[in-house]
Amino acid sequence: MLEEYGHDRAALGVYLASCLAAASAELRRVPVDVLQQRFTGWLPRQRRPF
Question: Under 8 Å CB-to-CB from 13, ≥6 apart: which residues?
Answer without folding.
Answer: 40, 43
